[in-house]
Amino acid sequence: xKLHIPKRKKRSRxxxxxxxxxxxxxxxxxxxxxxxxxxxxxLLLVHYGIMDIDVSIPSLARIVSDTAxxxxxxxxIIAFYAGRLxxxxxxxxxxxxxELADGNYSARLKFKGPFAKTPTxxxxxxxxxxxxxxxxxxxxLQVDFVNNFSHEFKTPIVSIAGFAKLLKTDxxxxxxxxxxxxxxxxxxxxxxxxxxxxxxxxxxxxQSILTNVTSFNLSEQIRNCLLLLEDxxxxxxxxxxxxxxxxxxxxxxxxLKQVWINLVDNAIKFANEYGTLxxxxxxxxxxxxxxVRNTGSTIPRENQDKIFNKFYQGDESHASFGNGIxxxxxxxxxxxxxxxxxxxxxxxxxxxxxxxxxxxxx
Length: 362
Description:
Helix Hairpins; 5-stranded mixed beta sheet; two-stranded antiparallel ribbon; about 60% helix
């Protein structure tokens, strides 16, 4: 049975052998140049009588040429094998990169030998391994996202189809009919929100320059976002705790609106019933600090750095709705406005803080 070797691997081996020959050739040329210089100096010194050697010039020339040929043969062998040594780390890097290209994100670089602890090799292996870990983590998140999103997307569709079917029956009371229509409306809005978050993330990830910057009332914008989500926080019987004055800001109004909707919606989602939803804005001169706080379940310390990652879901049981995109959208928009967003927790509350410059010219 003939072993089948992929064309890419054959080309890779051929290229590496060519590189080995190149290194060997350079080493061999250095040896050759050194040998020619030494032999030439030796002949000159003997010719002008500076070196006293009791042999004739033709005999000396023959000895030198024989020695040179022997040295060239030995030098070629040494150069060929010595030229392969610098390629050992290169070959390992190429092999590891090929594994990554083939989808094996668990590939890691590990060097051995006397050069393993040199700063350059350590930096190379650390950088590669960190890149591989990020790719592996992103791949896992994307797989989880597809599974989670499929689950989240299918549930409201099944619900809409089920209640729409029930509406076809003739023996429903008016109260039941209103209830079913309300559920269909709620599930439709849920689907719309999921699709909107995915589209928003795709849009802002492809946007590097902040455009459409205007001056508007930040306080009024946050109040309008609270009104948009009124049904959600009233359903949980939440108490509002608002602490801010009338404040103006320069920003992209539409993008910033997505920040407050996502933060407030996230706070409501993880708040306990009859809990508190608090929003506080502090004026620090050139910067506004907006805190969105909710009482209820908190985020474990080890997960606090992950909540702004794409596709990350803190609630792995799917007990609450969400697809791990909202806070990733928040982070990207805030960074586009040259701001920062971070989370802090106490025993019974979680606070997401956004710090934004008042103007985009500073």
